[in-house]
TrEMBL record:
Cellular component GO terms held in the UniProt record: extracellular region
Domain of life from the UniProt record: Bacteria
SUPFAM superfamilies: Allene oxide cyclase-like
Annotated keywords: Secreted, Signal
UniProt organism field: Streptomyces pilosus
Listed name of the protein: Dirigent-like protein
């Protein structure tokens, strides 16, 4: 089921506070700027590495948007919208993919046109998870949702993401992250936050 002409697509657009136009830091980064609201002194984490703040800008381009009519026929509480797409950097002369995003939204309040959404932005440095309520359907406005965690360099990150709808299938996102740490090989985890594989030992070895 495509995105065009879908009344319910606006729900997905409003609810995805967790994805969109990311600019990465490092080799795959494009537009990273220091947070203007960052305090003068950044607290040091308990592992001895330097915690820092980061702002990441990206655009999410939806490729999939499927509406699931659950329960009563027609739009009702419990209906879901499942989406996925690419994260793009628009810096420079040419756009380039820098990651992907996916998630789902569940309608919780028909009177307020509101629902709960959860999504994950997947970047070369790790994943960022987002969750929160979106309202104002079918005409979504700028919304801010919570960053609930992540993996890799974002494994202890917290903060928020601001989403602005450009078109029903294009979202502009600004991630404001705190307590972000660079990956350290000695912590036993890979860049995506998964444990580093360990060669099994045989009995008697």
């Amino acid at each position: 089921m495509g995105l065009a002409g879908r009344r319910f697509i606006f729900f997905a657009v409003a609810v995805l506070g967790c994805s969109a136009g990311l600019t990465l830091i490092g080799p795959a980064s494009a537009d990273v700027v220091p947070s203007e609201t960052a305090p003068a002194a950044t607290p040091r984490p308990d592992d001895g590495s330097s915690a820092k703040r980061r702002v990441i800008h990206v655009e999410a381009r939806l490729r999939v948007g499927e509406e699931l009519d659950l329960g009563a026929a027609g739009r009702s509480v419990g209906d879901q919208f499942v989406f996925s797409g690419n994260l793009m950097s628009t810096e420079g002369r040419e756009e380039r993919p820098v990651g992907r995003i996916g998630g789902f939204c569940v309608i919780t309040d028909l009177e307020r046109n509101a629902g709960q959404c959860a999504s994950t932005a997947v970047l070369p440095e790790g994943q960022i998870t987002v969750q929160g309520e979106q309202a104002g359907i079918p005409v979504p406005v700028t919304v801010v949702n919570a960053v609930t965690g992540g993996t890799g360099e974002f494994r202890r990150a917290h903060g928020q993401v601001m989403q602005r709808v450009l078109t029903p299938a294009t979202w502009q996102l600004t991630f404001e992250l705190s307590d972000v740490r660079p990956h350290r090989p000695e912590d036993g985890r890979g860049p995506n936050g998964t444990p580093t594989p360990v060669r099994p030992s045989l009995p008697g070895k």
